[in-house]
Amino acid sequence: MLLDPGMDLTLRPMRYPDFYERYRAAIRNTWTVEEVDLHSDLADLARMTPQERHLINRLVAFFATGDSIVANNLVLNLYQHVNAPEARLYLSRQLFEEAVHVQFYLTLLDTYLPDPDERVKAFAAVDNIPSIRDKAEFCFRWIDTLADLRSLETKQDRRAFLLNLICFAACIEGLFFYGAFAYVYWFRSRGLLSGLATGTNWVFRDESMHMEFAFSVVDTVRAEEPDLFDDKLGEQVTLMLEEAVAAELAFARDLCGDGMSGMNVDQMREYLEYVADQRLRRLSMPIRYGTANPFGFMELQDVQELANFFERRVSAYQVAVEGNVTFDETF
Amino acid sequence: MTQIVEVDRRLAIEEAAARVIADPENSKVAAGLLAEEIADETATHGVRTFSESVAATHAAGLLQDGLAAFVSAHSTELDALIDESADDRFEYFGLRTVYDRYLLRHPETRRVLERPQHFMLRVACGLSASVAEAAELYALMSTLSYLPSSPTLFNSGSRRPQLSSCFLLDSPRDELEGIYERYGQVARLSKYAGGIGISWTRVRSRGSLIKGTNGHSNGIVPWLRTLDSSVAAVNQGGRRKGAACVYLETWHADIEEFLELRDNTGEEARRAHNLNLANWVPDEFMRRVEADAMWSLFDPKRVPHLTDLYGEAFDTAYRAAEAEGLHTRQIPARTLYGRMMRTLAQTGNGWMTFKDAANRASNQTARPENVIHLSNLCTEILEVTSDGETAVCNLGSINLAAHLAGESMDWTRLRATVRTAVRFLDRTIDLGFYPTPEAEAANLRWRPIGLGVMGLADVFFSLRLPFDSPEALALSTRIAEEIALAAYDTSADLAVERGRHRSYGDTRAAAGVLHPDHYGLGSSPAWTALREKIDRTGLRNSLMVAIAPTATIASIAGCYECIEPQVSNVFKRETLSGEFLQVNRYLVTDLQRLGLWTQEMRDAVKRADGSIQDIAGIPSELKILYRTAWELPQKALIDLAAARTPYIDQSQSLNLFMATPTIGKLSSMYAYAWKQGLKTTYYLRSRPATRIAQTTVQALVPAEAEAVACSLENPEICEACQ
Predict the structure, then answer these.
(1) Is A15 contained in some domain?
(2) B105 in helix, strand or coil?
C-alpha cells in the first residue's frame, strides 16, 4: 500500500501509472523565469493609488516565502512517506517547480522593489507582518505535526499524514495561493500587471497540478485503506479549512482595508468560502459554507486563452515532444 | 456625484462583461454603457460633434493641418455623416479595444478626444480627397464591413501617418556595416507600428574565416541576440510591443542553432525570446526529406549566389556546390526536418514557408534579378526585396460576416466593397509616411496592397457548413476568386485613372500571365476578359491579395479571425487591455432555442475546455458544426488554403492546430502542406500539457471524473470497473 513504510525502488510492474503520467505531463510544461517580462509592470505600479500599492507590496511579501514553505514540507514530510518510486518522481518534479516559483518571486521582488531596504523588509514580512506571520505559523504547525514520525506504522500515524497532505493541498496551495491569485487576476482584469499575471498563470498551472496530485494520493489511500477516512477526519479537515479561511481573511483585511472597486473583504470572504467548499467537494466531504463565487473575473482563468501574439507571449506550448519523421499519419 | 455615477457605471460594465457566457447579449449591454462613458469623457473636453473632435485633436497637436482644414471647410456635411446608432454594432470587446487603443487622447489629461464614430470618420477623412470619398469609406467602416489594418487606424490623419502593416527587409550583407545598418532600419520601422520580417541568410555561419582580423565568426546567433534586444527596446508608442520574424534558408550552416533560439532551456546567451523564427524552405530540401537523402549545409560566404536563386536554377547551383565540396557539413535531411518539427511543437515557431512556391507564382518575379527572399511577420506577404529595397505592404480586411444575405453571400455587395477597399489601399501608398528611404522606394515602384478577409468561420456557422464539408470548400474558393477578380479589375481601372505602377513592365502580368494561370485556372471567361482588359490598361498594383491574421481588427468587427476556425466555444482574449470572455454566440443561440443553455451546460462546456463533443443532449449536427480547431482534421484547413491559393497572389496566414503534437503527425502534415502547393504556413498552435484547476465550475469528485483511475494495469485500485 502507498503509505506502507519503506523505500520502494521497483518501477516495473508499475503500481501507480497515473502518478508517472502526471510526472511526464509536468515536464512537458516546463517554463523558466527568463520568459516572463516583468518590466512592463513598472509603469502600472507607478500609476497605482497608495491603497493598491499597499496591496501589491503585501502580496509580494507573502509570495516571497510561500513556495519555500511548501517545498520544505515536501522534503521533510511528503517525500519520506509516499512510498512508490513513481510518486517520488512526481514529487521530485514538484520540488523543481517550487524552486522555479521561488526564483520567480525573487525576481519579481527585485524588479518591483528597487530599494534594497524595501526588499529586506519584504522577506522579513514572515516575521514582522502579523497577517503574513499568522499564515506562516499555520503552515509551520502542520509541518511540525509529522516532525517525530519516522514511519507511518499505525492508523493514527497515517491519519496524521493525511491531514498534513490535505492541509498543504487544500489550505495552502489550494486556498492561500488561490486567494493570492485572485488579487493578481483582479489587477489583470483591469489591464494591469500583465507580467505578474503571465508568471502567475504558469505558477497557477503548476499549483493546480500539485493539488491534484495530492488529492489523487488521497483517493488512492482511500481506496486502499478506507477505514482511515472516518467522521473524525472529516471534522478535522473542515476545522482546518475554517482556520485557513480565517487566516486568509485576516490577510485580506490587511490588504484591502476599506476596500476598492471590485475588491473588498466581504467579496474575498465569499470567494474563500466558495473555494474551501470546492476543496471539500473534491475530497468527497460535505461542503461547509454554500457560498457563491463573487469574482466574475476568475471565470476568465477557466477558459482557453487566445493571445494576440503582437501583445502577449503565448504560453501554450509543450516541451519533450516525441516521435519520428513519417508521412502517413493522419492529422 | 458624477464620480459616483462613473464608479457605478464602471461596475455595471464589468458585471455585464462577466456575464457574457450566460447570455451573449450582455456584451451589447456592456458596450452600450461603455459608449455612454466615452461620450461623457469626450464631453469634458467640450467634444460632441465630429468637427469638434477634429478641432480638439488638432489643437492637441495630434493631427495634420491639412486634415483639420478639410474638416473645418466641410464641417456641416461631415458632421451629418456620423451615424450615432452605428455604435450599437459593437460587441463589448470590440468597443473596449477601440477605446483603449485607437481613440486619440489628450496628451496631458489622457482623456479621449473622439468618440468611436468620430474615430472612424477621421480615419476615412485622412485617406480621402472629398466628402463623397470619406462618406464611402466611412459607410464600410461604420457597418464593420471593412476595416483598414491597425497602423492605418492608428495613424491616418496624424502628423506621421505611417500606414503600413509590414516591412520585409533583405538579409544584411555579410559585413559589419551592413548588419548595423539593418538594426537601424529595423528600429525606425518598428517605432511606427510596423511588423518586421528580416532574412539573415546572407550572413556567414559559425567558424567562417574573417579576413580582416584572421579570426573565426561566431555565426548568426550573437547578431540575432542583438536584434532581439533591439526589437524589445522599441515600444510602439505604448500601443504594441515591437515584433520581428527572422527568416533563414534551410541550407545555412547555422540552421540548427537558429532553431534553438526560442527554447526555454539551455544557454541564455544563445537564446532570443522575442524574435519569431521562420524557415525559408527550398523544394530541393523537401524532396530529399521524402527520398531520405543527405542534405548539405553551407556557409553563405562560400555560396553567396544561392540566396538569389530559386526553382531549377537553385537546384542546379545547389547540387553543383555540393559536387565541388563547398559545404560545411552534411546531415540526413530527415534529421533536420525532424528538428524543425520539434521546434514547431515546442515553441509554435519555426514557421514553414516555401521559397519555390512563393517565387514561382509571384507577379513580381518575372525577371531573374527580382527574387522573393522572405515573407513577413505574419507569413501572408510575399514581395521582392534587395539590399536597397525594403518591401512594404498596406493591408485591410473585408468582414465576410457582414456580406451575408439570407442563405448566401451577397456577391454584388462583396464586389463593391472590394472596389472601395482597393481604391483606398492604393491611396495609402501615396499618403503614407515611410520611416526609411528603402521602404519608400520599393513601395512606390511596386505599389503592392494586401486585401484580406475575416469572419469566414461566421459565414460557415451562419450557413451551417462544417469546415471540412465540400460546400465550405466551394464557397471559400469562390469568395477568394470573386475578391481577386474585383481587385484586379479595380486596379486596372486605377491604372487608367492614375497610371500603371512604375515597374509594371517587370511583372508577369505585363506578359499576360495572371496568378490563376500558374495553377491552370486562368482560362474561364471572367479571367479571360480580365486578362484582355489588363493587356490594354496595365495594373496600378503589382500584388493585391493577402490574408492577414486580423488579430485586432477582427476583435473590433466582432467576428472570427481571417480564415480561422474557432479555437473554443468559450475562451478568453488576452490583450494589453486585459482579459475578455468570449463565447460562440451561434452555438448559444442554437442551444437557447433548444432550452439547453443552462448553468450545468455552461459548466460542462467550460470543463471540457470549450468543446461540446462529449456533452450529452446536444444534437449531433450541432456537434459537427461547432467543432473547434483542435477537433477539425487539419487536412481540411490545408485543403481550404490550397484551393484558394490560385486566387491569393501573395499568401495567407494559416495557423495549424494540434493539441498534442508528435514528430510523426507534424512531419506528415507539413509534407502534405508543401505537396498541396501552399506558399506559407504560420504558427503551429498546441495546448499546454497541464491546466489549472478551474475555480468557477463545480469540482468533480473522483467518481464523476471519468478515466481518473481506470487502468487495466492496476485493476485492484480501479473503482470504475467494479
Answers:
(1) no
(2) strand
Cell 466615452, residue located: B38
Find the residue in A nearest to B21 (Cα).
Answer: A299
Contact B14 A262 (CB under 8 A): yes
Full 3-state SS string of B193-256: CCEEEEECCCCCCCCCEECCCCEECCCCHHHHHHHHHHHHHCEECCCEECCEEEEEECCECCHH
Among residues B393, B387, B547, the alpha carbon closest in space to that of B455 is found at B547
| CB proximity list for B366: less than 8 A, separation 6 or greater | B506, B507, B508, B510, B511, B513
Binned at pLDDT 50, 70 and 90, residue A312 comes out as very low
> What is the CA B395 to chain-centroid distance, rounded?
10
The whole-angstrom separation of Cα A69 and Cα A138 is 11
Domain residues for B11?
Answer: 1-143
CB environment B508-519: b (16+ within 10 A), e (fewer): bbbeebbbbbbe
Residues B30, B92: contact at Cβ < 8 Å?
yes
Phi, psi of B435 (to 5 degrees): -65, -20
ipTM of the complex: 0.77
Rg (CA), chain A: 20
Separation of alpha carbons B452 and A44, rounded Å: 36
Return residues 56-95 of A near B (CB < 8 Å): none
Q: Are B689 and A28 in contact (CB under 8 A)?
A: yes
Task: Over range B440-457, report the average pLDDT.
Answer: 96
The CA radius of gyration of chain B, in Å to the nearest whole number, is: 26
What angle, 0 to 180 degrees and rounded to 10, lies between the N-to-C axes of helices B283-291 and B663-675?
Answer: 130
Domain of A284? Answer: 50-302
Q: pLDDT tens across A111-160, in order?
A: 999 889 988 988 899 999 999 999 999 999 999 999 899 999 999 999 99
Buried b (16+ CB within 10 A) or exposed e, A125-162: bbeebebbeebbebbeebbeebeebeebeeeebbbbbb
> Number of folded domains in chain A?
1
Q: For residues B655 and B634, what is the distance between their CA atoms, to the nearest angstrom?
A: 10
pTM (global) more than 0.90: no
- Taking CA atoms, what residue in B is nearest to A43? B238
Sorting pLDDT into bands at 50, 70 and 90, what band is A34?
Answer: confident
Q: pLDDT tens digit string along A195-240?
A: 899 899 889 989 999 999 999 999 999 999 999 999 999 999 999 9
Does the annotation list A101 as a binding residue? Answer: yes
Q: How is residue B459 written as a grid cell?
A: 459565414
Exposure pattern of B434-468 as b/e (b: 16+ CB <10 Å)?
bbbebbbebbbbbbbbbbbbbbbbbbbbeeebbbb
A63: domain CATH number is 1.10.620.20
In this structure, is residue A142 part of a structural domain?
yes
Q: Alpha helix (H) ranges present in B98-155?
A: 116-126, 131-142, 150-155
Check whether A302 has a pLDDT greater than 70: yes
- For B630-648, give the DSSP string: TTS-HHHHHHHHHHHGGG-
B65 within some domain: yes
Q: Is residue A67 annotated as involved in ligand binding?
A: yes
Model pLDDT, residue A296: 82
How confident is the model at residue B712, as a pLDDT?
A: 33
- Contact (CB<8Å) A224/B610: no
User: Is A40 within a domain?
Assistant: no
Could you read off the pLDDT of B419-437 as tens digits, one per residue?
999 999 999 999 988 989 9
Is the model's pLDDT at B22 over the cut of 70?
Answer: yes
Confirm or reject contact between A306 and chain B (CB < 8 A).
yes
Question: Within a domain: residue A22?
Answer: no
Residue B308 lies inside a defined structural domain of this protein: no
Report the chain B residue with the minimal C-alpha distance to residue A329. Answer: B665
Considering chain B, what percentage of its residues have pLDDT values greater than 90?
79
Q: Please list the active-site residues of A.
A: 105
- Amino acid type, A121: K
